[in-house]
Amino acid sequence: MNWTERGSDALASTMARLWKEADAALPPDQRLKAVAQSLSTLAQELEAAVDSAREQRANEASSLMLRPPHERADYGEMAQRLYRDRRRRAEIFADETLFGEPAWDILLDLFVSGEKGKRVAVTSACIGSGVPSTTALRWLNVLEMRGLVEREDDNNDARRSFVRLTPKARLQMAEYFSPSQG
To answer: Residues with Cβ < 8 Å from 181, sequence gap 6 or more?
Structure first.
């Protein structure tokens, strides 16, 4: 059973329970309104719980990034190791395209560089993605539209620009590499 089916089953079960709990003496339209109000209240409670969980995760990730660099240096090393393993895998199988996941490779490369305090030129990010430049540029645009990377112009060379993770993406990467809380 997939998540959609589980969600539909849970909703149907909840609606049936609420219908039984609603005052049977009410006319059907008022009883239905009571059920709708109960469902609305449940939806608001679920939304608040999801928001609370997201906020807690963001606070945990934020506290990870606020630690002194020597206490979180292993995240950068872990990302570097993962990035190298991905490149090695492509070399061993002699096919760069077989394991393509350019967005993830870009995020890894930018995270590692950010942890080392290095700036990454757009052309370097394209090379680091392991795909043709046009494909890498498309992925950089996707990541930028989703608020994960941002570009900055090179003040010394108008032909060049740099790319880096947004604070949001840095927190998400730190959360990914932090020990699981579950």
So the answer is: 60
